[in-house]
Amino acid sequence: MKFNVLAAAITGGVAVAIAIGFTGVVGMYSEGYGKPVLELFASVYPGYTASGGIGDLAIGCFWGAIDGMFGGCLLAWLYNCVSSMMKKT
What we know:
Shape: elongated
Radius of gyration: 16 Å
């Protein structure tokens, strides 16, 4: 069985964007919720500062989606490569 690389990339992008968005929105209304996680993302994503604003959160979700797409694509591709090598033996 092979993974659909495009579907895995889209799923990864949506999942990471939702995770950052959910954590950011809850953090806006609950002081300190998820702050270390959002600051970790802020240290990686350019333009995202984890300040708690809507525009800033949109930037974080955008970069999270791009990051998740690359991660999902890489994982699916790697699985397909290893899976095809295991069938040859």
